[in-house]
Amino acid sequence: MEQNKYHLAALKIINFVVPNSIDCSGNLCTQRRDVQKLLWGFPKIILRNDSLLQSFYGMKMKRLLSKSVLGFHFASIFLGVMVSGVACGKDKDNNDTLVGTMLVALNANTSCANKDHCKMFVSNSYAVLNARIEGLDSQCASDINKPSSSTSTYKALVADGTNRIACTSANCATGSTSEQIDWVLKPNKEYRRADGTTVIGNTSVNGIFESDLTNEVSSVITGTNFTITGLNANWTNSPNDCSNFSASAGNVSFGSHIEKTIASVIAFGNTVCSSSRKLYCVEQ
Q1: Complete edge-to-edge strand list for the sheet that includes strand 280-283
Q2: Model confidence over 144-177: pLDDT tens digits?
Q3: What residues make up the domain containing 232?
Q4: Would you say residue 112 lies in a domain?
Q5: Gyration radius from the chain CA atoms
Q6: pTM score of the predicted model
Q7: Statement to judge: residues 170 and 254 lie in one domain
Q8: Neighbour tally for 103: CB within 10 Å
């Protein structure tokens, strides 16, 4: 029973790194099946003296996996290397490729969750205000101001009250982060500019900036210093959000990226949805 427990846990990790949904016409699918075959023999060797695996899959690992997707990736690499080591005498080249595949998976999904800071930048392009939340996120992901060396995901700091919510009560005073839906800021995290050194500010336990910023999100104005947010000054959703960012008619709330006072950073004013405004883009 103990072996089955760790065995199933390992399978879940392998399934996460090389999922079933991949194209099975390629090498990755074959390698996934190879991993599973190797894994079925894994407990017979490792679990004869399984204190290492048990300690890894004990409470420490549970905390890692519950707190961080990145921790999950590290767990995947850990097990992947051990599995490869078990079978390296049989087919070392294939297993080297397998570990490489896992490392690619890790690099493709890096996160700032376990780093000492996350980054923010102001988009070079103007926001397409009828593109919906996912469209605005896509703009951040492809914007030329995104740090060139980054493999992280970037999302737009906007809220529409339905698909993305920062707070439902003023400054999330009632329910803290439980009020949030797909929110882009992390609690108790330092945020820096794209240069990685200039500190913008620190979020509170509620996952929002509650104190004035240390530095502006950007002091450089290219076209406009105004950035759409769909937010009120207290981080609740503004009714001015271009109909959940789906229409060119109506109004939208915006902030100013050259300000430090939070009310001005996220809710400087309102304008029509046909206006040219930038985006705050936040590393995930």
Answers
A1: 154-156, 280-283, 117-122, 190-192, 199-202
A2: 999 987 789 999 999 999 999 999 999 999 999 9
A3: 117-283
A4: no
A5: 23
A6: 0.64
A7: yes
A8: 16
